Amino acid sequence: MSNLPLNINLTQIFLHLLNFLILFAILYFLLYKPVKNFMEKREKTYRDMDDEARDNLRVSEETKAQYESKMSEADSEISQMKQKSRQEIEKNRETQLAAAKDEAERIIRDAKNEATREKERILSEAQAEISEMVTDATEKLALKATAGEAFDQFLDAVDLAEERGSKHEQ
Amino acid sequence: MDKKQKKTMLIIFGVIAVVLLAGIFLTSGHGGEEEPIQVVMRDAVLHDVYKVNLFGLEINPGLAAGFTVTGILTVAALIIRIFVIPKFTLVPGKFQSVLELLVGYFDNLSKSNSPHINKVLGAYIFAAGVYIFTGTMLELFGFQVVTTAGHSVSMPAPLSDINGAIMMGCTSYLFIMTGGIAANGLRGITNTLKEYSLPISMSFRLFGALLSGALVTELVYYFTALSYVVPVLVGVMFTCLHALIQAYVLTMLVSLFYGEVSEPPKPKQKKVTAPKVKKAKELTV
Fold it and tell me: Is B285 a member of any domain?
């Protein structure tokens, strides 16, 4: 088959082909495939690392969001509690103020009652003393002096009793 | 670099230049090759003079170079697979970076040009790119092979042999077709057959590009006077450049066409009928 122009020889073409196919197989299995596999594996490793980092970032962002929502919840709870305690303090203050007012009124009322009772007692004592003095004066008049003197003494005794009574009232 | 070091470097370069010039003028002008330039050029193109014996079969030196490249790459791949890849780390070292860059480049090329189906494409263009680059760079080392006539010739790039270039072009075309079939079935075959000139263009582009490099290098080395200093520019630089360029061009073309034929058909859009325009008569009335 070597009579083709330009010295083209089919046998040699097939030998070239065989040679190239052998080389193709060798280069594919010994070089291309292992190096490509390694490159793909390394790419996968880095991709996994990247994915892992993304996941971690996502989780940390979620945690941060949760933390922030909890913080805001705690803030609102604290403000609510503050409000509640303020209201309770106000309520207690009002209750205590009312109690103090009641107490003050009660004390004043008691004091007034006491004063009234004291006045009545003094008046009754003064009346008793006056009546006793009148009785004494009457007795003395009846026993020792004349009727004019007795009458004057009686009038003096009455004046004296009235003076004392007015003093006690003051 | 201080002044003393600069002086030393200049002296060393001067001595080397003087030695090379002496070599050029003192050696005879007949060159190192016994054959006339026409024979050398014709054989570089047609490979019909020098043959290499492979288990009783006469093959072109280009095919022998192809086997050599496969052997070298196999040993290198084995060493890398056994000693380097198991020690790969998450933070790559220099050599690991180079390997990852190489594999990653072809992988990305396949994914970007053929987003729908690209599992085997990356491996194919990786193998093709490495084969073209390493095979072309083999020219630089001038590995010798003994011909059936008993001559010693340096191994050319495997794809500067037209049979190697045809193999690479046709295999790439068939590979593109398999991508079309895998993605679109019979429609994929039709899509690939539309590009019927692709195997020829790819084959001859590779052949022409690599052959021209081989010819220039051969020409330069043919004359002794040119074999000093000049090969540093012509040999090394040109070889490196066209090794890179041809590997890039073929892998790019394969991935582009593979992506094109494996692209799923676009759904047909319903024709939107334009609202009827009232006739001018009706409007005037």
Answer: no
